[in-house]
Amino acid sequence: MNIAALKEKLATDGFQEIGVLEWEADRFNETHSHPYTARAYIVSGTLTVDCGAEVTTCGKGDEFTLAPNIPHTERAGPEGVKFVFGIKP
């Protein structure tokens, strides 16, 4: 899917604040949580989300949805990551 199609899918599914992020190689975001549901579609690279009991690594073409208020870390892969995202309050 292309970026426009992914943004449209997010909007159709009720997600808001839709955008595209590109993180540098090995970027690490410390433990945090969001007060909303977050969904991401990986366009290139890899993204690992560690929720403590569950670690998920997503690559190109994968979709990842995270429920609200789940503490987690995020790490871009060695080639970085580009993803389309949206949030649902």
Strand elements, count? 6
Q: The biggest beta sheet, please?
A: 6 strands, antiparallel
Question: Whole-number radius of gyration?
Answer: 12 Å
Percent of residues in beta strands? over 45%
Segments where pLDDT lies below 50 for 5+ residues?
none
Task: Describe, in short, the structure shown.
The chain is mainly beta. The chain has one helix and six strands; from the N terminus they run H-E-E-E-E-E-E.
Descriptive report:
The protein has a single domain, classed as Jelly Rolls (Sandwich). It is globular. Strands 1, 2, 3, 4, 5 and 6 form a 6-stranded antiparallel sheet that branches. With 89 residues, it is mostly beta strands. It has 1 helix and 6 strands; from the N terminus they run H-E-E-E-E-E-E.
Secondary-structure topology with pairs:
Blueprint: H1 3-12, E1 16-23, E2 28-32, E3 37-50, E4 55-59, E5 63-66, E6 72-88
Antiparallel strand pairs: 1-6, 2-6, 3-4, 3-5, 3-6
